[in-house]
């Protein structure tokens, strides 16, 4: 009985650490809504509702159990991913964050012609097409703002109207789930695939985004839409390390799961 109790305590401690490690998470779109929903919600409730442009297809299969570089998804963990969204360029469109996009827009601010601020953007993607340009996330329009996209099979950060950053070093794969991330630190960009660094870029001359054109799966104007499946879109207000990105790849346990584990420990304690 003591061994079982200790194991349960260790599990709860591990889950708790996971929640603490994700303390910088400011927006999280799980994309678990029902088929036909016009909107998807931010699980953190900061950036709020995202409204579809076009007809993204919800209720699609998500990440399966397996090994993705150093990221291991167990069968139990795979179930926690829920469902994914299919974004077929161009007809299935993208999602525009319409609730409170300033939460994301304010992460990078223009200062003396440079972008000052920190952020990490991450998502599970399973692209059908990697040729051309397909946006994972973007903020702004015209010559103001930024985008994080697939560009000719690699990852690229772009400051609109200013600079296409150096692309990542490794080609992405089609018809394969991959966890991609981009960190931004006062003009220094680093790319990650499955929690492993894939190179850096330097961006100067950033022009702050205007308006509320903050999207994932595409950019303002409906161009360069993502083509494939996407899930677990996350925005952080700090620069995550490789280890933190790997941890963020696994969905956090729900509060009900933690409460359930707490109840189990209480039962074990009383049974002692």
UniProtKB/TrEMBL annotation:
Question: Which SMART domains does UniProt cross-reference here?
Answer: LamGL (SM00560)
What InterPro entries does its record include?
ConA-like_dom_sf, Ice-binding_C, LamG-like
Question: Which UniProt key words apply to this protein?
Answer: Disulfide bond, Signal
Residues making up the signal peptide according to the UniProt record: 1-23
Which Pfam families is this protein grouped with? Laminin_G_3
The question of whether Disulfide bond is a record keyword is answered with: yes
Repeat in keyword set:
no
Please report the stretch or stretches of sequence annotated as the LamG-like jellyroll fold domain.
117-243
This protein is called: LamG domain-containing protein
């Amino acid at each position: 009985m003591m061994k079982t109790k200790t194991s349960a305590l260790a599990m709860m401690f591990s889950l708790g650490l996971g929640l603490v490690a994700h303390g910088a998470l400011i927006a999280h779109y799980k994309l678990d809504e029902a088929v036909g929903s016009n909107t998807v919600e931010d699980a953190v409730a900061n950036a709020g509702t995202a409204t579809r442009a076009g007809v993204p297809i919800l209720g699609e299969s998500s990440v399966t159990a397996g090994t993705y570089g150093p990221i291991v998804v167990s069968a139990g963990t795979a179930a926690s991913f829920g469902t994914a969204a299919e974004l077929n360029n161009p007809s299935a469109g993208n999602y525009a964050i319409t609730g409170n996009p300033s939460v994301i827009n304010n992460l990078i601010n223009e200062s003396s012609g440079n972008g000052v601020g920190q952020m990490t953007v991450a998502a599970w993607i399973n692209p059908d097409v990697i040729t051309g340009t397909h946006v994972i996330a973007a903020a702004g329009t015209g010559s103001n703002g930024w985008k994080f996209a697939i560009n000719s099979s690699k990852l690229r950060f772009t400051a609109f109207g200013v600079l296409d950053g150096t692309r990542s070093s490794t080609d992405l794969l089609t018809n394969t789930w991959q966890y991609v991330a981009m960190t931004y630190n006062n003009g220094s960009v680093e790319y990650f695939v499955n929690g492993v660094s894939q190179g850096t870029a330097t961006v100067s001359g950033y022009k702050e985004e205007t308006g509320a054109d903050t999207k994932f799966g595409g950019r303002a104007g409906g161009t360069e839409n993502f083509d494939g499946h996407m899930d677990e879109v996350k925005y952080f207000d700090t620069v995550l390390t490789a280890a933190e990105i790997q941890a963020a790849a696994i969905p956090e346990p729900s509060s009900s799961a933690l409460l359930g584990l707490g109840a189990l420990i209480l039962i074990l304690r009383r049974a002692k």
